[in-house]
Design brief:
Layout lengths: L2 H20 L2 H14 L13 H16 L6 H23 L17 H16 L7 H19 L11 H22 L6 H5 L1 H8 L16 H4 L2 H13 L3 H14 L8 H10 L11 H4 L2 E4 L4 E5 L7 E6 L6 H8 L9 H4 L14 E6 L2 E4 L16 E3 L16 H4 L5 E8 L2 E7 L9 E11 L3 E10 L5 E6 L4 E4 L2 E5 L4 E9 L3 E7 L3 E7 L6 E11 L8 E7 L3 E7 L5 E7 L6 E3 L2 E3 L3 E6 L5 E7 L3 E4 L2 E5 L6 E7 L2 E6 L5 E4 L5 E4 L2 E3 L2 E3 L2 E4 L10
Parallel strand pairs: 28-30
Antiparallel strand pairs: 1-2, 2-3, 3-4, 4-5, 6-11, 7-8, 8-9, 9-10, 10-17, 11-16, 12-13, 13-14, 14-17, 15-16, 18-19, 19-20, 20-23, 21-22, 22-25, 23-24, 24-27, 25-26, 26-29, 27-28, 29-33, 30-31, 32-33
Helix pairs in contact: 1-2, 1-3, 1-13, 3-4, 3-5, 4-5, 5-6, 5-7, 7-11, 11-12, 11-13
Length: 695
């Protein structure tokens, strides 16, 4: 629809840049010829629409007019200035008036949609170009300031610097916003960058990065991988490296450039121009390290977690996305009809346009280096939940919002959001619980909460709790990087470089599997009969083809209806008992263990000695008659690692903690040596950050 006109405008940037850099007569004449030709056209977008095509034409023609100004005759300047002004006025009208089908200006009050930011930024850019030549330019510029300030208000409240439509759409709108805001500052001195939002880009993109590629672990929303091989993202990350003197951004730019290479085509080359202009060679690349950036992050507006073991080709990267359509800030402000939305949206045409969002709450991703173990079937229009690694209920997925009318009515969104309920992170363990119960059009669905425990560095245990008031069919879905086959209660998903994802189905005991390919190989796991309540307990075990026969075994110690305990026994005889509370109201017993909610892991050596202990969300943990730990703060996270006569404790706690440690003579707490008092087989300590040995 607006594709050709976008290319026409982008080409202008390249031609004008070639003229300025080379001062070659042929280059300059070609740029001038394009500029004068476009100034005779009676429209700058398909059917005279006023959308992205017009915006790209505004930017391309404005840049060329400015850079070639001295090469134009007075008559040529007047011709170009007149047409550019007419087209800018058209975009101004589209931005200030309600929707007209003939204009296709549905975007005028869609503050969280890429079209809104792109179209207003282009108008502002044209206004800056014509400030001394068109009396209307001041009006256009004032309007653009107001419009961008509205979207900036939302952007700067997005604390994690993410974007609900997808990372390529984020790169797209930022790459068009920057030429306007940069020139606004240079010409008027006004700073209109969403700096808090943009300055967080490097961390977001570094965590989302798959090593050795230009790909992302969270492949959400509408896009294609070929979009990521684009210079928009190079220009944006180059800008953040320069403006915020961020060495991680410089490293990421280097990684992406190495993976993508350089090539010229209509879509990409113009953004190389901006990338060149943003470059600051004094910002030297710095590779990310776990010691500096940690190994787990909760992106709270997107409501997604990313867990990493590092940034090398040998490291694992896991992602879980539980967030609502539009992102948390946009969703909450829209539903409550708060600023910047102009209430009532039903009549004022403000809209939370989530047409590029997918029905993907509680979807998960897993990669090993740059190799996919559990991808999704990503892409434009792959909206339905079946393309994602989440649940289907009665063969159906979550709500989607494909119809325009839904975007304007906050009531349609209200009460349908998903969210991350709890996270916990320690050096050797991670935990997340995501609640997507309200995301399904199933009237009697009471709960779909996905719990995931990462036992670092090697595997994940997932528990999905599903509850309804009437029997349902539940399908657990996972996609794979390569072919998938069943081996008893294991599913083997093959990937590149001899890598394999093993999925061990611990529960349900009796299930049917369906294998297919919807763009990627997938498996669906369903209990053999419809049930009201059920748990899916699955072990996600990354391994290699050569080590496949050495994979662990699992057994369910207990599932009480409040909590489940699963034992994972490794080939060397060591074992991990993983206890997940999914409906704990008070102290409860599950198998040999007793706790009062949350999650716990008890790791033992082959001889039965305690090796590691992890507790989050419970104030105590008992194993039979043995108190493993008590005195923890409610909701806090705690870890203990036993090595010989030393125990290393990490986490947050108040007061006195009692920890089972029969052979311990030295204690560290969060890396600091600490004193303790012994009471039989246990030690007692508080977080004093002392530096003495035991007594």
């Amino acid at each position: 629809m607006y594709t050709d006109y976008r290319v026409y405008g982008d080409t202008m940037v390249v031609l004008a840049f070639a003229c300025v850099m080379t001062e070659n007569t042929e280059d300059c004449n070609l740029a001038k010829e394009y500029l004068l030709t476009y100034s005779t056209w009676d429209m700058w977008e398909y059917k005279g629409y006023r959308d992205l095509g017009l915006s790209h034409m505004l930017i391309g023609n404005a840049i060329t007019y400015d850079w070639l100004y001295d090469r134009l005759t007075p008559a040529e300047r007047e011709q170009v200035c007149t047409t550019l002004g007419e087209r800018a006025q058209q975009q101004y009208e589209a931005s200030t008036q309600q929707r007209r089908d003939a204009w296709n200006n549905w975007w005028h009050s869609s503050y969280m949609q890429n079209h809104y930011i792109i179209n207003n930024s282009a108008l502002g850019f044209a206004a800056l170009t014509l400030l001394q030549e068109d009396a209307r330019a001041e009006t256009w510029l004032a309007h653009t300031r107001t419009q961008i300030a509205r979207s900036n208000d939302l952007h700067n409240r997005i604390s994690d610097s993410t974007w609900h439509e997808s990372t390529p759409y984020q790169d797209y709108f930022v790459s068009v916003l920057l030429p306007f805001t940069i020139n606004l500052e240079k010409i008027t001195g006004e700073v209109l960058y969403p700096d808090p939002y943009l300055s967080g880009q490097p961390l977001w993109r570094i965590y989302n990065h798959l090593p050795g590629t230009s790909h992302t672990i969270l492949a959400f929303g509408d896009f294609g991988w070929d979009w990521l091989a684009g210079s928009e993202q190079l220009s944006v990350i180059e800008f953040t490296a320069a403006r915020y003197q961020n060495r991680y951004a410089a490293w990421l730019h280097q990684e992406w450039e190495h993976d993508m290479g350089r090539f010229a085509n209509y879509w990409k080359t113009s953004w190389y121009v901006f990338e060149f202009l943003y470059d600051d060679p004094s910002v030297t690349p710095l590779a990310p390290r776990v010691d500096d950036l940690g190994q787990a992050w909760h992106f709270k507006d997107l409501d997604a977690v990313i867990w990493r073991t590092g940034w090398s080709m040998e490291d694992l990267t896991f992602g879980l996305k539980s967030g609502t359509n539009g992102g948390r800030v946009a969703f909450d402000t829209f539903v409550n009809e708060e600023y910047p939305w102009t209430a009532p949206c039903s009549s004022n045409e403000c809209q939370l346009n989530v047409g590029h969002d997918h029905a993907d709450a509680n979807t998960f991703y897993l990669a090993w280096g740059g190799d996919w173990l559990a991808p999704e079937t990503e892409g434009v229009g792959k909206v339905q939940s079946s393309y994602h690694n989440t649940m289907l209920i009665n063969g159906q997925g979550q709500y989607d919002y494909l119809f325009y009318r839904y975007y304007r009515d906050p009531a349609v969104f209200e009460g349908k959001d998903a969210f991350i309920e709890q996270t916990a992170n320690t050096p050797h363990f991670d935990y997340v619980a995501g609640d997507a119960s309200r995301s399904y059009p199933v009237a009697d669905l009471k709960d779909f909460t996905r719990h995931v425990v990462f036992v670092r560095p090697g595997y994940f245990l997932m528990l999905d709790n599903l509850e309804a008031t009437t029997p349902q069919s539940y399908d657990w879905v996972s996609h794979f990087g390569g072919s998938a086959v069943q081996h008893g209660d294991w599913i083997r998903g093959n990937s590149s470089n001899n890598r394999v994802l093993g999925i061990n189905v611990v529960r349900p005991v009796s299930f049917n599997t369906t294998f297919g390919n919807d763009g990627r190989p997938y498996v669906r796991i369903r209990p053999t009969s419809n049930v009201t309540d059920t748990r899916f307990i699955t072990l996600l075990y990354p391994t290699t083809s050569n080590a496949w026969n050495s994979r662990p075994t699992t057994s369910l110690l207990a599932d009480t209806g409040q909590a489940a305990a699963t034992r994972v026994t490794h080939a060397n005889g060591s074992r991990d008992d993983i206890i997940i509370g999914y409906k704990v109201l008070s102290s409860t017993t599950v198998g040999p263990y007793r706790f009062n909610g949350g999650v716990a892991v008890v790791s033992r050596t082959a001889s039965g000695s305690l090796a590691k202990l992890f507790v989050a969300g419970s104030t105590f943990l008992e194993d039979g008659s043995t108190s493993l730990v008590h005195g923890l703060a409610a909701g806090a996270e705690f870890e203990a690692v036993y090595t010989g006569t030393t125990v290393d404790v990490a986490g947050e706690f108040d007061g006195t903690v009692t920890l089972y440690a029969p052979d311990v003579t030295m204690l560290t707490v969060n890396g600091e040596t600490q004193t303790f008092a012994r009471s039989g087989d246990s030690i007692e300590f508080s977080n004093e950050n002392a530096s003495a040995h035991s007594q």
